[in-house]
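Worked example

This section walks through a single chain of length 127. The input is the sequence exactly as stored; nothing has been trimmed or padded.
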Amino acid sequence: MSRFVSAAGLVASVLVVMSVAQQRGTFTVGTATAARGHKATGTIEVPPGVDAGLSIPVAVFQGAKPGPVLALVAGAHGTEYTSIIALEKLIVTLNPAEISTEGAAPQPYRSQEHESLLSRQDRWHAD
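Given that input, the structure is written out below as tokens.
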């Protein structure tokens, strides 16, 4: 339950930061910073608490034109890989120069199978 609350808090924090980003030329989530019309990858560092700390992979997109904000999260339930694979494909194929966003669209994910997912992270690094 504490992981669910933490994930909900993370998404809420990202959405608040995204509303502030509407007034700037770049947007940062964790270590990923995207300029308008670009994407970037990085991590969100979660400090240790009851569980060990970890790094959550994140991709940030900022469209070339103003528009709505979108946040996508995958891998919330352990070994449910379908949403993670779909998000990996979206990260690779989505071209920020062709979309309209206000701010950016981060895609963090966390799974109980975190180590196996980190081995897939190289599939969606920004160019």
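What to look for: Residues 2-118 form one domain.
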